[in-house]
Write a structure and sequence with these properties.
- It is a single chain.
- By secondary structure, the chain is mostly beta strands.
- The chain has a single domain, classed as Immunoglobulins (Immunoglobulin-like, Sandwich), CATH 2.60.40.10.
- About 0% of the residues lie in helices and about 60% in strands.
- It contains no helices and seven strands.
- Strands 2, 3, 5, 6 and 7 form a five-stranded antiparallel β-sheet that branches. Strands 1-4 form a two-stranded antiparallel sheet.
- A hairpin with an 8-residue loop joins strand 2 and strand 3.
């Protein structure tokens, strides 16, 4: 089963920040950079492929803003109902 989490980032002016994705199994993304030249919105996403033999426990993914401010956003929690 493939899970995809989307996050829409909106700014009211130019903004540049670094972020990373965290997930329950410890598979973190590399640090990424997102740049806004002007006010607006951008959508980012991350996929997680869960195999049939994996445990049916809940999973989560989370975005962490690293720079210029450290912010932990809410976790996106989803159920893995695959046997």
């Amino acid at each position: 089963m493939r899970y995809t989490v989307y996050a829409t980032i909106t700014t009211n002016g130019p903004y540049d920040f670094n972020y990373m994705w965290m997930q329950k199994d410890g598979n973190e993304s590399a640090v990424k950079n997102l740049v806004f030249d002007q006010a607006g919105s951008k959508t980012i996403s991350r996929e997680w492929m869960v195999g049939r033999g994996d445990s049916p426990n809940d999973r989560w993914m989370q975005i962490i803003a690293l720079w210029p401010d450290y912010i932990e956003f809410d976790k996106a929690i989803f159920k893995n109902n695959c046997p």
